[in-house]
Known about the structure:
The protein is an all-alpha fold. Helices cover 63% and strands 0% of the residues.
Amino acid sequence: MQKANYIEERKAIADRIKDLRIKSGYTSYEAFAVENGLPRKNYWRMETGENFTINTLIRILKIHDISLEDFFKGIK
């Protein structure tokens, strides 16, 4: 069985993560990562649509004080 890539879905999630950062006043992903105790490389991967763990996503959402439900609204 061939593994699915889910490229469009990953891109939509990545865009939402980046949008949250920018709306929080961070122009740099590096500054956001450092100030919030996140590994810069791992955070950059999230913003570019690379694979990541659900724990990491939950951590990002807690930083932004947003629920999973609100985060995924409108993402298809």
